[in-house]
From TrEMBL:
The gene is upp. Keywords: Allosteric enzyme, Glycosyltransferase, GTP-binding, Magnesium, Nucleotide-binding, Transferase. It catalyses: UMP + diphosphate = 5-phospho-alpha-D-ribose 1-diphosphate + uracil. Residues 7-208 form the Phosphoribosyltransferase domain. InterPro entries: PRTase-like, PRTase_dom, Upp_B, UPRT, UPRTase/APRTase. 5-phospho-alpha-D-ribose 1-diphosphate binds at residues 79, 104, 131-139, 200. Belongs to the UPRTase family. This is Uracil phosphoribosyltransferase. Pathway: Pyrimidine metabolism; UMP biosynthesis via salvage pathway; UMP from uracil: step 1/1. It comes from Blautia obeum.
């Protein structure tokens, strides 16, 4: 699928296996999510545009490449997406941070919006949307729609684990968006949880189980 990138780096796979373990506690889970975000961010940002800038070394003046354009915007989907933000800002410390608040209704599994604040001018920024889980795809489809309604154009989405159903839906509804997935899992269960998955990402990051 064009614009869909499934990670195959052994370090990412190893850390995702540790995340899945039900005996991994909150502290370790949080660290792993952040480390995975660093590794995925490294892959997802390899096409950042560069421009030559004049630099004076101790030896002589030269032109040397630096990241071009407006600072990128990291946009976590609350709550669980927050766990990946520090991973991306480790790579790009000057990134601006927006927030999108969505929660999934436990009965219908439909997303409900409760917050949206994005850094201006959003239309000039590369936007990196973060959420550990892509299940039915409802939350991600809505989050991308909200960003586009605010003028966002250049969007990359990062998910640690995705279900095939959600990946297909997000790609179908927003084919222009680049989607990065740490691991593509088997399927959704009757409660729209990812199998084998890792359970509820937000609860495991914040210790609210
Ligand atoms: C989880 C997850 C995604 C969403 C995925 O969040 O972090 O945002 O569910 O499911 P979907 O693809 O079926 O929409 P949740 O709604 O549980 O909120 P939380 O992060 O506040 O726990
Ligand atoms: N949200 C989660 O946190 N986990 C799932 O498996 C599905 C949605």
């Amino acid at each position: 699928m064009e614009n869909v990138f499934i990670m195959d780096h052994p370090l990412i796979q190893h850390k995702i296996s540790m995340l899945r373990n039900k005996n991994t506690g909150t502290n370790e889970f949080r660290k792993l999510i952040e480390e995975i975000a660093v590794l995925m961010g490294y892959e997802a940002l390899r096409d950042l545009p560069l421009e030559d800038v004049e630099i004076e070394t101790p030896i002589e003046k030269c032109k040397s490449p630096m990241i071009a354009g407006k600072k990128l915007a990291v946009v976590p989907v609350l709550r669980a997406g927050l766990g990946m933000v520090n991973g991306i800002t480790t790579l790009v410390p000057s990134a601006k941070i927006g927030h999108i608040g969505l929660y999934r209704d436990p009965e219908t599994h439909e997303p409900h919006e409760y917050y949206c604040k994005l850094p201006d001018p959003i239309e000039q920024r590369l936007i990196v949307l973060t959420d550990p889980m892509l299940a039915t795809g409802g939350s991600a489809v809505d989050a991308v729609r909200m960003i586009k309604q605010h003028g966002g154009k250049n969007i990359k989405c990062m998910f640690v684990i995705a279900a095939p159903e959600g990946l297909e839906r997000l790609h179908r509804e927003h084919p222009d968006v680049q989607i990065y997935v740490g691991h593509l899992d088997r399927e959704l269960n009757e409660n729209a949880y990812i199998c084998p998955g890792l359970g509820d990402a937000g609860d495991r990051i914040f210790g609210t189980i």
